[in-house]
Amino acid sequence: TPRPAPPAATLRERARRERVDRYLLPAMRRANVDAWLVVTREGSMDPIAYDVGAEHAVGRVACLFVDRGETLERVAIVAGFDTDAFEKSGLYNRVVPYGKDGLGPPLLEELGKYSPKAIALNQSKDMPLADGLTAGNLQWLRETAPDYAKRFVSAEALLVSFRSRKTPSEIAKMREAVGKTERILAEAL
């Protein structure tokens, strides 16, 4: 039997994809990073999880974005039971499932393919939005990828640049909201 068509993406989901498509690679370049790695899991969700389609992840997840010159490589490495949401997000070139061996081996394989010099992690002393990597996930990452640990840098500058830009559809919605607010205030006053 034919598969039913997936539901149309919401405005919020389209805006998320549009922001990644338009603004992530330039933000990475402004921050002087070759890769951005978001590691999160259920129960300790990174504040940026929605932006990378990881808001419903159950198992530990690695969302890897790599500057490939002309393109942005986007790889989600997820538990086998989490693949559907990442595939449906439309954010990734590839979704790599892992099984009982865990996230470590496929993450190391992906990092080895690209060998990034500077890998931005969501750590920040001053900005909560850029400080979503838990101590436990950081420890796991350092133990799993010790050869890359000296390449880890804060994603703070990247996230300031990336999150501060609004897509045309978001700007249109903001203008609509402002118009409604002005009409309500005019009626009230």
Protein described:
There is one protein chain. The chain has 189 residues and is α/β, with parallel strands linked by helices. The protein has helices at residues 11-30, 83-89, 104-114, 135-144, 156-164, 168-188, and strands at 35-40, 61-67, 72-79, 94-98, 119-121, 152-154. Helix content is 41%, strand content 17%. The chain has a 6-stranded mixed β-sheet, sandwiched between helices. Helix 1 packs across helix 5 (156-164). The N and C termini lie far apart (59 Å).
Précis, in short:
Helices cover about 40% and strands about 15% of the residues. It has helices spanning about 10-30, 85-90, 105-115, 135-145, 155-165, 170-189; strands spanning about 35-40, 60-65, 70-80, 95-100, 120, 150-155.
Key phrases:
alpha/beta; 189 residues
List the helices and strands and how they pair.
Elements: H1 11-30, E1 35-40, E2 61-67, E3 72-79, H2 83-89, E4 94-98, H3 104-114, E5 119-121, H4 135-144, E6 152-154, H5 156-164, H6 168-188
Parallel strand pairs: 1-5, 3-4, 5-6
Antiparallel strand pairs: 1-2, 2-3
Q: Please summarize the sheet with the most strands.
A: 6 strands, mixed
Dominant shape: globular
pLDDT < 50 stretches:
none
**What order do the SSEs take from the amino end to the carboxyl end, as H and E?**
HEEEHEHEHEHH
The spatial strand order of the largest sheet comes to 4-3-2-1-5-6
Question: Distance between termini?
Answer: 59 Å
Tell me the total number of β-strands: 6
Estimated structural class: alpha/beta
Overall mean confidence score, pLDDT:
90
What radius of gyration results from the CA coordinates? 18 Å
Q: How much helical structure, as a percent, in the residues?
A: 40-55%
